[in-house]
Amino acid sequence: MTILESPFFRSVAAITRAMEKALTYMLGLCVLVMVLLVFGNVVLRYGFNSGITISEEVARMSFVWLIFLGTVIAFRTKQHLGVNMLLDRLPIMLQKIIHILRQLIIMWVLWLLMQGGWDQMVIGVNTALPVTGWSQALFSGMVWFSAVAMFVLAIGDIAIAIMTPAERSYQYRFRTAVDHVDDAG
Asked: Nearest 5°: phi and psi at 83?
């Protein structure tokens, strides 16, 4: 039994899948809120000459949340844009090294996003949105949340890459993006 087949890694994988499922449900909720508010507001405006005053702000917030939650899910499922043509031609050990270096670069960019998201959250925490009165930090907080979530996923990905043997059968673990959904493993 390899360390990747240990009960610890199996439980971490189960927790990660559960979080991915929860984020997917939150994505669906964001879409539902957007559709209901925008469609309802259109019907009320043109049919009854009234409207939902908070619909624009809440729909915009749902859209921002949808985008940033989607980036986390895409990062988890390795669905971001990537070109593997050159990587596939390299020896497996070199693929593993490049993958770890690439994840470290991604973590550096995510660290910058975390810092910027936190700074914007601090700035916006006392700024109220004009209609709802909610804090502006609800927008910038999603930048920080998604950066932190992807940072944690990148740490896990590096740990898995380090512990995975450099063999052709594990090649899919050394990719940041997959060619097909089935390749994610």
From this structure: -120, 120
The structure tokens 């979080």 sit at 19
Yes or no: say if 37 and 63 are a contact pair by the CB < 8 Å rule: no
Contact assessment for residue 142 and residue 68, using Cβ atoms and an 8 Å cutoff: yes
Q: What's the pTM value of the predicted model, to 2 decimals?
A: 0.81
Cβ atoms of 83 and 178 within 8 Å: the answer is no
CA distances from 79 to 40, 74, 76, 109 (A): 33, 5, 8, 18
The residue extents of the domains of the chain are 3-184
Whether residue 81 has pLDDT greater than 60: yes
Long-range CB pairs of 79-86 (<8 Å, 24+ gap) are: 79/177, 79/178, 79/181, 80/176, 80/177, 81/177, 82/175, 82/176, 82/177, 82/178, 83/177, 84/175, 84/177, 84/179
